[in-house]
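Hi everyone, sorry if this is the wrong subforum. Our group has a chain we'd like a structural model of before ordering constructs, and none of us has done structure prediction before. Sequence below.
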Amino acid sequence: MSTTVTADIEVDVPIRTAYDQWTQFETFPHFMSGVDSIRQVDDATTHWVVSVGGATREFDADVSDQVPDDHVAWRSTTAEVDHRGRVEFRPVAADRTRVDVTLEWEPEGFVEKAGAALGVDDRQVEHDLRRFKEFIESRGVETGAWRGEVHEGAAGGGADPLGTDGVVGDDPDLRA
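Answer:
Right subforum, don't worry. Here is the predicted structure as tokens:
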């Protein structure tokens, strides 16, 4: 039985700043509990290492649809982990953005199924969004950006062949 969690938060940064930070997948461990690491394989593929219920899992995920300042959607591509999600960005004011997250996955094992049934997953996603808010608001600026688009898993960056709009995620403060 699939589990779906939805949560939202408003962050006190412009939409571009919130969106650009979200495209920096490698920073997710700074605000997402249970995410040990994410490595960007290419424009549309990431490799995740997560810890859930005492077990470590690794999986690949592809960005399936991405439009700057609007949304990012992804899905796992590894058979062992069934996971997908979407985050949408909506302007509330010039310097305030609403971030809406929908996650869906297939819990495995007793611990994950019990956590889903007890609403632990809902609370965790809400907690992680609050940590994202603290992370981006305390910085005031994104750690990098990827401004390309992805449709049906195919990336395109427009005039900039790297799709970075001249900004890359190379913040020395976030290096391990």
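For your construct planning: The longest strand covers residues 55-67. The two ends are 37 Å apart (CA to CA).
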